[in-house]
Design goal:
The chain is 44% helix and 14% strand. The chain has seven helices and six strands; from the N terminus they run E-E-E-E-H-H-H-E-E-H-H-H-H. Helix 2 crosses helix 3.
Length: 201
């Protein structure tokens, strides 16, 4: 009977290694596989492997499907697709216009879209006061996304846009620049500099 032999060999000071000697007709009907001295039919092993894959695929698909945040409008069809809203976004060719249209479609100043599998949805906010409050006063609750930080880290590694607020350098740089963002400095220094540049032009 044609078979392949898998033997585990112990070497002093090294991890066990598996040596395989497969034959051309290993997967022929009735072929056996010898593992640790036990003869196992190849068809049984393949059936077991296929069963495990068949059980894991639905779980993998469920994990990849978007997970909507309750109470926030979203496209029902997109919630049942692994790619979420990406197919609809790419059809238009104008992603920003598509995002803007969704506010009118959902009749809401806030909605969510699904862009990547295995990730949380993006929350889109069109209310100015809420957006300003989130970006200026609620950094502890809403920080920069990892995607934003990764996008700018290569070019602007020490800039605010490439650091989360929990970063030690972010707080240090913010302390260095805080006097440059006061109303007095912006009105008296920056305004006068801009006025002189405009007069020269």
């Amino acid at each position: 009977m044609i078979s392949a032999v898998l033997s585990i060999q112990q070497f002093v000071g090294s991890a066990p290694s598996i040596c395989a000697s497969p034959s051309m007709d290993l997967f022929a009907y009735g072929g056996n596989l010898s593992i640790a001295g036990q003869q196992l039919p190849v068809l049984v092993l393949l059936t077991a492997f296929a069963s495990v894959v068949a059980l894991l695929l639905p779980l993998l698909r469920w994990a990849a499907l978007p997970k909507p945040i309750p109470g926030i409008p979203y496209n029902k069809l997109s919630a049942n697709r692994i790619l979420g809203d990406v197919p609809d976004m790419t059809k238009t060719g104008r992603v920003r216009f598509w995002m803007r249209e969704q506010f009118a479609i959902h009749q809401s100043p806030i909605y969510q879209i699904f862009v990547h599998p295995f990730t949380k949805p993006w929350i889109m906010v069109a209310d100015f006061r809420e957006a300003q409050d989130v970006m200026m006063r609620r950094l502890d609750e809403f920080d920069k996304s990892t995607r934003t930080v990764d996008s700018f880290a290569g070019v602007l590694g020490s800039s605010f846009i490439s650091m989360k607020s929990s970063n030690r350098l972010f707080k240090h740089n913010k302390d260095l620049l805080k006097d440059l963002m006061t109303s007095a400095y912006l009105n008296e220094v920056c305004a006068s500099i801009r006025c002189r540049i405009s007069n020269k032009a």
